[in-house]
Amino acid sequence: MAPDNVETLSLSDISTIPENIKKLKNLRQLTISRESSNGPRLKSLPAGIGDLKKLEWLTITGQELSTLPPEFKKLSSLKTLHLRENKFTEFPKEITSLKNLESLSFDWNRIKHIPAEVRKMKKLKSLMISNNELESLDNAELISKLEGIQAIDNRITHLPAKIYKLKKLNHLSIGNNQIKNLPEGFSRLSNLEGFYIADNKLESLPSDFGNLKSLKNLYIDNNQITKLPDSFKKLTALELLRMQSNQIPAIPYGDGFPNLRQFVISGNQFPVLTVARPSAAVRQDPSENSPEIFQMKKGEQIIILSRIQDAKENSRGFIWIMNSYGQLGFCYIDEI
User: Fold this and answer.
1) For the segment 189-220, what is each residue's pLDDT rounded down to a tens digit?
2) Are 151 and 134 within 8 A, CB to CB?
3) How much is the CA Rg of the chain, to the nearest whole Å?
4) Complete domains list, the chain, with CATH
């Protein structure tokens, strides 16, 4: 096959790339991977790689790269770059010159910080930099078009003070780090739909956390949270909530969580009540017509998630509960 006809090339278990790779003028996708655990590893790239002007996708995984050649910045068509499982200790400055790059993966390297030069990456939407040695995500907020950040398993102690500048951010995964609190203004991330901050040292959520009106998936499990802010009840878009292994005693309840589909709460401080006599609970607000009912047996233990004042009957309050089958419902406390 003539070099001009090659658009896709996959290589594995190689130690060098020949300089004449630059002859593949129409190459659009290049993948270099590791197949054998004992096979050779690529330690450097040739200068000629910069002549691949039509290259849009480059994946180099499981190698021993620690630097990139200066010519790398000439890959002006590159949109997707995966450099997982290499030996980088610094974020290569050459990458910040890739003006059309949209997706960057640096998982499983040894990078310690993100340089300010990333502000030049005007089209970058996705940054994956898990399993590195980052102590912060400072400067990530300079990448104005970011929609997703994945930085799990690092050493991050705090988020950028101005992370709220990432107006398009809809997914943030920072689990298994050392974060104790969220910065002021975090709740201004109005497009955030998924937030994964499990396995940190988080002690509380901002008082205005409920302003994250787009939030659908929230993982705050395995932290040190002792109380949820009252604004939490405004998170009516929630579909998934995992909050196990904290010290939370109650969940603020306003208009409810009508879209909630998955709910994990074990390992908290919720009160437990033993049902004194056979009774029933409703799955929806008791004030609504034709509520769906489920039965509770005498001796069954139920978890009290929230105590709610009944606006229509001020003399009585009802409780939001979870039974032993994981069913959510409401009942008047004097009826169980």
Assistant:
1) 999 999 999 999 999 999 999 999 999 999 99
2) yes
3) 26
4) 3-270 (3.80.10.10), 271-336 (2.30.30)
